[in-house]
């Protein structure tokens, strides 16, 4: 993950500042500019970086630094707090209750890893004693149902879909109904993606959402999306009530900064990250350990 390089760049900037005999405005600015550059290179959105820099300048007191306090630690702490603030929208996502039926709808662009992530999410909960089920309401991508069926079979999770029905709303409603009757407590609805943000995709999402009334809508985003992350996440949030985010492909060469943008744009927490193609390459996301790792 290239995001790890960010920690190295930030550490170097802090070290340079610590080495300076006098910490004045210029030394602090140079340090913050270095850090800003590193964050932008990691694909964190420009506006988030700018606000973060301004906040740190407000928090960090030059006189305190000059008085010989541990400069490196003071600034590092300010950066740590700011990054945590960006990644923590301040409210947790909807809490599922075991034994009580919850409907969770997955949305995202085609190729983001949505279908794979649906199964990972179901499998994760199944291991913890839930009774999940998968509904394939993706009638747009040829092979989507086969893929979901194959994954679900491997994980021994019940599934619902159709090779002939072309109305995703109908499939979603039928699937949800069936699994309610079978007393599943976690009904996961996989929706269609598109290669890019399109009006037709958003309209379809809205209709599936209206018909199935999900308790939680999860937005799945590929971590390699880069600077486009903010606009993409915002477009989804404007169409359906996104309540949580899952970032996929964190194992790849992605710079990962888009994760911060997705939280800012949807005001929703990241709940899991995908770290590989396999079913169990899936981790619960916690802000503090993530940022600690990020800063090296
Ligand atoms: P969808 O079109 O959004 O449903 O995407 P898919 O679930 O079909 O995933 C697209 C590709 O990304 C597939 O080849 C998946 O195996 C792969 N993929 C999904 N999640 C991850 C991940 O966390 N890491 C890696 N390396 N590959 C992933």
From TrEMBL:
SRP54-type proteins GTP-binding domain sequence ranges: 269-282
Catalyses which reaction(s): GTP + H2O = GDP + phosphate + H(+)
GO cellular component terms attached to this protein's record: cytosol; endoplasmic reticulum; signal recognition particle, endoplasmic reticulum targeting
What does the record give under GO molecular function? 7S RNA binding; endoplasmic reticulum signal peptide binding; GTP binding; GTPase activity
Q: Does the keyword Transmembrane apply?
A: no
Give the keywords, sorted: Cytoplasm, Endoplasmic reticulum, GTP-binding, Hydrolase, Nucleotide-binding, Ribonucleoprotein, RNA-binding, Signal recognition particle
Functional description taken from the UniProt entry: Component of the signal recognition particle (SRP) complex, a ribonucleoprotein complex that mediates the cotranslational targeting of secretory and membrane proteins to the endoplasmic reticulum (ER). As part of the SRP complex, associates with the SRP receptor (SR) component SRPRA to target secretory proteins to the endoplasmic reticulum membrane. Binds to the signal sequence of presecretory proteins when they emerge from the ribosomes. Displays basal GTPase activity, and stimulates reciprocal GTPase activation of the SR subunit SRPRA.
Q: Which family does it belong to?
A: Belongs to the GTP-binding SRP family. SRP54 subfamily.
| Subunit and interaction comment | Component of a signal recognition particle (SRP) complex that consists of a 7SL RNA molecule of 300 nucleotides and six protein subunits: SRP72, SRP68, SRP54, SRP19, SRP14 and SRP9.
**Name the record gives this protein:** Signal recognition particle 54 kDa protein
